């Protein structure tokens, strides 16, 4: 897989901020809107994201992103035939839940449009590091088709290796009754 430095060749931010910035080419964002947000056949495509559009963060390519270094093995879900300088490489829909005067940041949905670049992990870290407060951005719900991803992520980032470890983490972060992680809890010993 290609080892492209995402920090060097991308920008991360709320979609509306990037759209309103006169320095960004809007063709890449239009491609994302047409092929993901408004596409009813896409995995999250029934336009649910439109109702909460201000909470969608995107990772966009800079003008000099090395698309030519991507390999045939990488799954690319971007229509690169549309001439653009700022393609959306990944996106995450983030919400905030208030519990006991604490604001808990949760991922409603996250996806990358190029495999093998760790775009999801990169977006999570960018969001966590560029906030005014110290936060841990975690998924609101872990569904069966994402169990392995989140299991590996939690092992690598939080040293979670057992059901007991996960339950302790959920207590410590005060998210037990906020998140829906039953399917992940069921597979851990």
Compact summary:
By secondary structure, the protein is of the alpha+beta class. 32% of the residues lie in helices and 19% in strands.
CATH top level of the largest domain is Alpha Beta
How many helices? The count is 7
- Strand arrangement, major sheet: 1-2-3-4-5
Q: Return the domain count.
A: 2
Question: Could you say which overall geometry the principal axes of the C-alpha atoms support?
Answer: globular
The fraction of residues assigned to DSSP E strands is 15-25%
Q: Helix coverage percent of residues?
A: 25-40%
* String of helices and strands: HEHHEEEHEHHH
Q: Identify the CATH architecture of the largest domain.
A: 3-Layer(aba) Sandwich
Mean pLDDT across all amino acids = 88
Distance between the termini: 32 Å
Within the CATH hierarchy, at the fold level, what is the topology of the largest domain?
Aminopeptidase
Largest sheet: 5 strands, mixed
Q: Which consecutive residue ranges, at least 5 long each, have pLDDT under 50?
A: none
Number of strands: 5
Secondary structure class reads alpha+beta
Computed over alpha carbons, the radius of gyration is: 17 Å
């Amino acid at each position: 897989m290609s080892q492209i430095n995402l920090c060097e060749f991308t920008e991360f931010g709320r979609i509306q901020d990037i759209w309103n910035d006169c320095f960004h080419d809007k063709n890449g964002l239009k491609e994302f809107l047409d092929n993901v947000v408004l596409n009813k056949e896409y995995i999250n495509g029934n336009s649910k994201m439109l109702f909460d559009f201000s909470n969608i963060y995107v990772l966009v390519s800079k003008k000099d992103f090395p698309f030519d270094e991507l390999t045939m093995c990488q799954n690319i879900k971007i229509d690169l035939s549309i001439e653009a300088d700022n393609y959306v490489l990944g996106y995450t829909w983030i919400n905030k839940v208030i519990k006991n005067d604490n604001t808990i940041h949760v991922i409603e949905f996250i996806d990358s449009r190029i495999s093998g670049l760790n775009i999801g992990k990169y977006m999570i870290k960018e969001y966590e590091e560029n906030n005014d407060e110290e936060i841990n951005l975690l998924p609101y719900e872990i569904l069966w088709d994402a169990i392995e991803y989140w299991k590996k992520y939690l092992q690598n980032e939080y040293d979670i290796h057992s059901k007991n470890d996960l339950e302790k983490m959920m207590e410590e972060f005060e998210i037990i009754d906020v998140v829906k992680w039953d399917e992940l809890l069921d597979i851990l010993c």
